[in-house]
Amino acid sequence: MRTHRGIVLTVLLAVLVPFSLAGCSASRSSAGSGANDPGARDGSPTPAVVAENARPGTPDWRLRRKGPQEEIEGFADRVSVLPGEPFRLFVSTTADGFAVEAFRVGWYGGAQARKVWESPRRAGFRQASARTSEETGTVVAPWKPSMTVPTVNWPEGVYLLRLTADSGAQRYVPITVRSADATGRIVVLNATTTWQAYNTWGGRNLYKGPTGYADRSRAVSFDRPYDRGGTGKFMAYEHSAIVLAEKTGVRLAYATDNDLHRQPGLLRGARGLLTLGHSEYWSTSMRDGATRARDEGVNIAFLGANAVNRHIRFADTALGPDRLVICYKDATEDPVARTDPAESTQDWRLPPKPRPESDLIGIMYNCFPAVGSFTVHRPAHWLFRGTGVRRGTTFPGLIGPETDALNWGGPTPRPIEVLAHSPINCGAFVKTADATYYTTRSGSGVFATGTMRWVCAMRGTACGHGVTGAAQRFVSRVTENLLRAMAAGPMGSAHPARDNLEEFSP
């Protein structure tokens, strides 16, 4: 809910700020330290975010009709670009022509997106069939570029390009307009490597091939469209959280997994790192960069489960650097395991160089498929302020389909608070899922929900799985409390964890 101050600020900005503010907010000057921005100092709403979201949204941003995939589909030759940088779009369609619209994801008074650009109609044609590597099972779309898309005056953020064929069929292409500088801001991290790991376009991903697991891909390429309407896992695990974050008005920056890998110092000076519903695939550079940031006072939040579970490497493709995600999932298969064991691509917790993810997250992956109710254990915790919960309050459906829990084998950062301790059914086993908060000597705070359904629950009953309106209100309020605390500075300094690990046993 907006404060009276926020409403007044929004009205003033709507009147006083020039229409071109969106382009200015994307410039390098606005991506700096924010010395004149109160949001950079105390976590209060930042004018750039408030002003952007006060602009009229575009309710008609969703796909009206998907149709068969071959009717219209596409991909970009960049995972992210800086504001003003162009990128090439590769489109295949069975129609005679198509057009493109670019929508920035945000709050926008509930519209959830704003159209910032559209193309003229372009001639369409059917591109070549998928090509598969015999060595790694990597699928690529060997297509010709269809057009170059400018991003002049596009504010930083996450965009959905809607492709519309003459026939009316539509698909998305996601693109992130990343921030040049994260100083004083919370970095929203798009889990692009996880999107690609599960992408079944062309018949293979890191989980299955034509006959099952044995002929799965050992490396997946960004040189192909996404499945699921063209967005991969974005809509299910990230969209709602970004809308909510922009609604709060806190100072945000945007980046992708690819960016964090390529720029380990990307988080330097940031207030926080926000990972969303499913951030499973991490490279060494990504993990080291996040760990170093935490140790320098940067807050981290994991709004999902199964994060930092798979170790990956990046490689280049014909279209550019770091567009190939390598993950054999088995050290006995990965040739690098013999020459550079620290870069072997199996689960992070496994040999030859085990680094359990709990060392960063506080908890670690423990179950799929998980079914249960989120059960509050420490209701007086500051993250739960305004929710009205009591010890033992439950939220059906909020747990699942994957969960994290305390790692009794270690490592577990201390002090750590278990905020929710939820009994779950995991196939034939009864286990628990845990939501935790720990703090560090650097002053940073790290929160983990322990469930993959946290972001989905922001949609309320539309999430399905028995999620209720009460769960939606709870998750939204906790996330708002979290974002404002992250934006204000090192959470551990303001809210040190009160260790309660002794209340639990393995």
From TrEMBL:
Residues 100-459 form the N,N-dimethylformamidase beta subunit-like C-terminal domain. It comes from the Bacteria. InterPro entries: DMFA2_C (IPR046540). Coiled coil: none annotated. Residues 1-22 form the signal peptide. PROSITE patterns: PROKAR_LIPOPROTEIN (PS51257). Keywords: Signal. It holds the Pfam family DMFA2_C. Residues 28-64 are annotated as: Disordered. This is N,N-dimethylformamidase beta subunit-like C-terminal domain-containing protein.
